[in-house]
């Protein structure tokens, strides 16, 4: 598994940042990436542990489905990295996914593991991959302009297919997940990353609030932003305690997926007073 990215004193963030300042003297930051945005409950627990034990007590959601922890004393790098190796949070290859499309999140997570096992030395570490749906109705919260290699899933027919594109140019089509992963890795060989920045999504484009579209009746996803992308460690840990499927979007919002409406109402009432913002038009975002 790739090491976490370590930002030295005085350096700016390596990813598009919502909040990252320059580091204090003798302090570092670490940045980890949630492949496809997918966060297991134990991932939140470990991130919050690192923030409390080694950092300044906050988790920074900095874009590209990455999380940073600031204020770590120089010399703690090995301990922090050893802690993060208990997770699948990686940094070397960024793999984004359309956050409201479960097949995209799942395939993106698998693509990240494939890159770690077979892509070392073959794919430039800063190439950005993206897995997105062919149907734009499911693309809310995804920024295709930030992607170097795109895997476009079409699940509308009896046989799902995946097209792999580089700069909007199709390089191949796959009829199963394994072939799609192979095509994506092959397309990225010798590709120089373009360093594309995330665009800003505002208002209805951000998957924030009570999201019922494209869900089974009585089921919703809750989407929340946090002020300046800063989440207190104890509030990050709450997401682990909830024990439900969650993800971090490419723009640093948090989604809790596929909840019964009654459960969603309870969770919203618990999280809203703790800094989670469920209004996409809030001035605090």
From TrEMBL:
Tell me which Gene3D superfamilies the record gives.
Answer: 3.90.480.20
Q: Which GO terms describe its molecular function?
A: oxidoreductase activity
Query: Region Disordered: start and end of each range?
Result: 1-21
Q: Matching InterPro entries, A to Z?
A: NiRdtase/SiRdtase_haem-b_fer, Nit/Sulf_reduc_fer-like_dom_sf
Q: Where is the Nitrite/Sulfite reductase ferredoxin-like domain?
A: 24-83
Which SUPFAM superfamilies does its entry note? Nitrite/Sulfite reductase N-terminal domain-like
Q: Where is the composition biased (Polar residues)?
A: 11-21
Per its record, how is this protein called by name?
A: Nitrite/Sulfite reductase ferredoxin-like domain-containing protein
């Amino acid at each position: 598994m790739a090491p976490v990215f370590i930002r030295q004193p005085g350096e700016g963030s390596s990813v598009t940042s919502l909040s990252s300042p320059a580091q204090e003297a003798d302090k570092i930051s670490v940045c980890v990436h949630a492949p496809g945005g997918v966060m297991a409950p134990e991932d939140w627990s470990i991130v919050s542990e690192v923030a409390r034990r080694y950092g300044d007590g906050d988790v920074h959601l900095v874009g590209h489905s990455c999380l940073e922890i600031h204020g770590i004393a120089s010399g703690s790098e090995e301990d922090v990295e050893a802690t993060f190796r208990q997770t699948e949070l990686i940094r070397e290859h960024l793999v984004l996914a359309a956050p409201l499309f479960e097949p995209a999140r799942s395939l993106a997570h698998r693509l990240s593991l494939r890159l770690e096992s077979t892509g070392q030395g073959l794919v430039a570490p800063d190439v950005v991959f993206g897995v997105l749906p062919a149907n734009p109705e499911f693309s809310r919260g995804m920024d295709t302009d930030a992607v170097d290699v795109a895997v476009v899933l079409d699940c509308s027919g009896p046989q799902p297919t995946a097209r792999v594109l580089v700069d909007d140019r199709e390089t191949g089509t796959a009829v199963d997940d394994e072939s799609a992963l192979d095509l994506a890795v092959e397309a990225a060989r010798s590709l120089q990353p373009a360093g594309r920045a995330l665009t800003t999504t505002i208002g209805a484009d951000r998957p924030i609030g009570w999201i019922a579209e494209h869900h089974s009746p009585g089921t919703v996803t809750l989407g929340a932003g946090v002020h300046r992308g800063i989440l207190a460690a104890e509030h990050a840990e709450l997401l682990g305690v909830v024990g439900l499927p969650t993800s971090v979007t490419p723009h640093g919002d948090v989604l809790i997926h596929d909840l019964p409406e009654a459960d969603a109402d309870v969770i919203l009432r618990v999280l809203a007073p703790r800094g989670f913002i469920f209004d996409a038009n809030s001035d605090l975002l």
